[in-house]
Amino acid sequence: MTESEPVLTASPDLESVRRDFIEGMSRVAAFWGLPKAMGAIYGALYLSPEPLSLDDLVAYVGVTKGAVSTNVRHLARLGMVREEVRLGERRDFYSAEGDFWKVVKGVLREREKAEFDRALSTVRQCLDAVGAADHAPEETSLALHYQERLGQMQGFFSSLDTLVATVMRLDDLRHASLLGLFGKRVVPAGDGNPREGSEER
Amino acid sequence: MTESEPVLTASPDLESVRRDFIEGMSRVAAFWGLPKAMGAIYGALYLSPEPLSLDDLVAYVGVTKGAVSTNVRHLARLGMVREEVRLGERRDFYSAEGDFWKVVKGVLREREKAEFDRALSTVRQCLDAVGAADHAPEETSLALHYQERLGQMQGFFSSLDTLVATVMRLDDLRHASLLGLFGKRVVPAGDGNPREGSEER
DNA sequence: CAGTACGTTTAGTAGAAACTAAACATACTG
DNA sequence: CAGTATGTTTAGTTTCTACTAAACGTACTG
Fold first, then answer.
1. Residue B35 lies in a domain
2. Of A194, B107, B121, B134, which is most buried by a Cβ count within 10 Å?
3. Nearest nucleotide (C1') to the CA of residue B72?
4. How confident is the model over B183-191, as a mean pLDDT?
5. Which pLDDT belongs to residue A10?
6. Which residues are CB-contacts of A142 (< 8 A; sequence separation ≥ 6)?
7. B87-CA/C29-C1' distance, Å
8. What is the total count of domains within chain B?
9. CB of B120 within 8 Å of any CB in chain A?
């Protein structure tokens, strides 16, 4: 804590709110397998009314420049922050993408998609391999079983893929559409609360 | 490789298929932040026509008993495998849950739910804190900005929560319903293929 | 052209997580 | 009751990842 008064000075209240929020975003990030600092940086940017410089972020988040630099670049690649260049200003400034559906889109596209395709193609290749080979008579039933299971998984992956692709299209439909869509058709239970009654942990 | 002939002996073809598949599931698991061995174990169980014992799994997956023991228990907690007890048989046997939607349900319930609630309540607490405090005049606008952003995030989390809860209810509706539901209402584009043209890797 | 302000890169480090090896617990079996 | 088969727990090791500290590159500034 040798730093001499960080950049912004909100009232004690707002400051603690910001700290809590940043810490919360850290936890979320960590939970999703992303670096803690990444979540913190996004949190700081998300709350800030105006774009922040790299050193601002160092002050807010408490990690070194290098870490902020790499994390902020990663966030930009995911479409979660935007880099802003100002004329007559050497520093770069960063701001958070406020539309969370865009964030989800970015993460899904960047992170899930690749591995998803790999998994799907692995299954398909296995399926092909089973179909192509001729098996000893006592193994034909095993081969058939493999085909069945692999086929089921392929089907599931396709469905999930469709689901993800569809969700990604919801970008401009916004929440209301989504909720209306789901709420009416799928849920037969009468209570207005879509969550099951599990309030506790 | 000092082991003396593992339990099963499929033809070289089926064996290699199985190996590939297991390796693929390992990758999937690793990608989702789960232990590699966990994915491998599930893969082995998923392909097997009948339940496997713990030592069978050791032979298939290539990790030690201890690792299989803990991982298989974890899988059971997630609802991804079932433990089967046979009369007059000391060993336990395990089989994979073949319905993948149940798997998704299990993972979502066990893993996402808790952290999800924490995040949401963090946001709510921050929101309350901002609302409760009285701020210096020059900070009221900042406070308002915090409220707006926090409110947006809260709304998003609620929506996402509803989405997840709804997906979890699809358990018995199966894929067709889901796809029909989505395909008709949401996607206006005419082509039958829900994926963008990315067939290659 | 020396000096400074920024951002990036690199080498090294610290912490976490999953695995191995082996001890342990428990229950059947002869 | 000794012996064996089975699953669990524990201590220690390995491996990976995100961070720090510091060097570096580059472009402005006086």
1. yes
2. A194
3. D7
4. 39
5. 52
6. A135, B10, B14, B49
7. 16
8. 2
9. no
